[in-house]
Amino acid sequence: MSGEGRHHFQEELKRLEESALGGIDLVLEQLDRVLEALEHTDIELAQIVILDDDRLDGRYLEVHQGILTLLARQAPVAGDLRLVAALLHLIKHVERMGDQCVTIAKLIPLSGYEPPIRREILERILRMGRAARSEVVQARAAFGARDVALAEDLVRQDREINLLNREIFQLAIEAGEDPDTREWAMHMTMVARALERVGDNAVDIGEVTAFVVSGLFREFSDSSAPTLPT
Amino acid sequence: MTTLPAVSARRRFTDRFMRSLTLVLTLVAIVPLVLIIYYLIKEGLGAWSVDFFTTDPTGRFLGNPGGIKSAILGTIVMVALASVIAIPIGIGVALYLVEFGKQGPFAKVVRYFVDVMTGVPSVVFGLFIYIVLVVSQIGGTFAAWKGSVALALLMLPIVVRSSEVVLNLVPDSLREGALALGAPRWRVIFRVVIPSALAGLVTGSLLAVARAAGETAPLLFTAAFVLGTQFDLSQRMNSLPLQIFNDVGQAQDRLVQRAWGAALTLVVLVLILSLVARLVQRRSRLA
Amino acid sequence: MNPEDVTSPPSAPGGAAPDPVTPKAETRRLEVGGARDEAAPIVQGHAVTLRGLNAYYGDTHAVRDVDLDYAANRVTAMIGPSGCGKSTLVRCINRMHEEIPGARATGEVNLDDLDLYSDGVDVVSVRRAVGMVFQKPNPFPTMSIYDNVAAGIRLSGTRGVNIKERVETSLQGAGLWEEVKDRLGQPGIGLSGGQQQRLCIARTIAVEPEVILMDEPASALDPISTLKIEELILELKRRYTIVLVTHNMQQAARVADTTAFMLNGELVEHASTEKIFSNPDDERTEQYVTGKFG
């Protein structure tokens, strides 16, 4: 194992990480688009989001192949091994988040070009969206900097999303008699659920960050719930 | 298309010149050797006969001069005794140097002395034994065993040197392997080191024997000269080198020819020993 | 994929399928640590513990105050850069270190309860109990395959042994019997490199040691022979306690239960192999195994 070989390996590893984290940037793009599409019921924009998911899938395959190559050729150990395993988790979560965006995008046209909107529900959806976005940004920062404290903080933000999700659900139940409105409200609960999933994936990325640093895999807990045994 | 510079004419000349020069020098060295062999065979073969090998020299100037039986037997007996003394001791010293002394101060001194001994002229060994054993009249005056001791002194440094080289060639990994199995030191030496070096030890000893068989000076004042065959070691004993020495100076041609015959016999004896040594070496390498 | 494929049992990591007759010695634990999952030991092994071991070559302090435990029936790998003292340390265990002129060692080397360095302990008996396999295979060149394996018994002066039986058992134990059983009279050096090394292993186990030290046993061999030796080591640990010095970290990872990392004569870290190669405690260990130095 010459110093030369390891230098190239370290370069490859860095590039792989950048590629994986770049996937998060793609997710943020999709998220921004889909939130805008929600706000203005922009069906064309929603279509673009659906089509653009191919880029994320491509990124997933690229990173996945990179990981296999690294494992086959470089036999990484210790910190390097944990990083490679973490990138595998990370890119999976990235791909899931992309799928959540597609799910949301597919729901937008179902209620037509001029859906009967309930302002209080839509406003909460957009708040959820912004919170989810900020979680994703924070997760990226935490992983990139290997900042465990920042990663654990994601749980706090996620609580807010869960709260909004419950409120939206409640509001949807009380949506009224009009079947069109009720249909739209139902779709919105599904959107909320997808956004909540995005948040969960961001928290998972936080857990992966803690794994890279400490070598231990544990669930970040909500402070209201008792700590799970490690 | 890559081109390389051609060989210069000057270099070609130098090559050829060096080739020819070394060839000439080789021939110059070989010619005397060839001549010796030629003369040995030319002059000595005529002396060989059944009588030559089966009768003792008679010491008569006129009449039958006899053969060289006592010389041949004497050489064999005295050299055998010398070998029995020199070879075990020589190998023992070599074992000490390689297995125990190694680079220690005492070992270095021993090695120095052995080196010096290889350079001592053989006549000095003869003289030494003459003074210490013959003049002092220990066990009589001239005696065959004293001749053997002188020969043994001559053989000793040769055996030590060649044995040390061969024992050093035995790789340390073998010693390590044997020690690691839980063998005491002496077993490592006798069951592993010596068997591995055996061919070389035999070769070295045979060459020492061949050398001793041909030495005149150590025997001149120790075993001296006698005509008849006798096996009493405490008395004088004949030997090939001494027989040659005596016969060469005589006026009669028959005696001089007998000397040549004895010389040829001696050379053949040494040749046989060397061939055996070579065969032993080759067999061990093929194994 | 055929439905039949699903029913056949997957092979366990490490190669050998578990012995159906012998029950598993312990169940898999979730935490990192502990021995690899495999069949139980056949012969109860012996533990070696080092306490305050120091070794010197003249004035050079090659091994510094090492405390280390080698668990019974386990393979412990010693890794570290060249000159870190791992070979020296291992040679102290069978007291071969003191054969080098000017070399000495202090401290305790305990085989179970007996300190091998205490007064009255015969060095030669130590080496019968603690066998050693070297980096370059060193079969005795003047001996046949049979005599090579028997050499250990004969050289160590062990009496009352049926040599023919012991030779066969040892060759089987070294995984060489089938290949040489019809040519036991042929010279030992006529075998290939990998076979020669297995012959040396057979020779070592013929003496029935309690511990086997291996100083880079496969580094002079081709990859296939190396793997055969590694498989052999995994089998051998069911009867012996094994210490493996290696500069090949993948080998340590494949074969060893625990791994000890040495640097400049000191023991830096000793932990389960999984831990050393996935999450070591000491930064120096991390640097070494990831190849950032050494």
Question: What does this protein look like?
Answer:
- The complex is a heterotrimer of chains A (230), B (287) and C (294).
- Chain A has 230 residues and is an all-alpha fold.
- Chain A has a single domain (3-214), classed as Methane Monooxygenase Hydroxylase, Chain G, domain 1 (Up-down Bundle), CATH 1.20.58.
- Chain A is built from 6 helices and no strands.
- In chain A, helix 1 packs parallel to helix 3, helix 3 runs antiparallel to helix 6 and helix 4 packs antiparallel against helix 5 (148-173).
- Chain B is 75% helix and 0% strand.
- Chain B starts with 8 loop residues before the first helix and ends with a helix.
- Chain B is globular, with a radius of gyration of 24 Å.
- Chain B has helices at residues 9-44, 50-54, 69-101, 105-119, 122-135, 144-169, 172-180, 185-213, 217-220, 240-248, 253-286.
- Chain B has 287 residues and is mostly helical.
- Chain B folds into 2 domains: 15-47; 53-286, MetI-like fold (Orthogonal Bundle), CATH 1.10.3720.
- With 294 residues, chain C is of the alpha/beta class.
- Helices cover 32% and strands 22% of the residues of chain C.
- Chain C has helices at 3-7, 86-93, 123-129, 145-155, 163-173, 177-180, 193-206, 223-236, 249-255, 273-278, 283-289; strands spanning 48-57, 60-70, 75-79, 103-111, 114-115, 130-133, 211-215, 241-245, 258-263, 266-272.
- In chain C, the strands form 2 sheets. Chain C has a 6-stranded mixed β-sheet, sandwiched between helices. In chain C, strands 2-1-4-5 form a 4-stranded antiparallel β-sheet, with helices on one face.
- In chain C, helix 4 packs parallel to helix 7, helix 5 crosses helix 7 (193-206) and helix 7 packs parallel to helix 8 (223-236).
- The interface between B and C is medium-sized, with 22 and 29 residues.
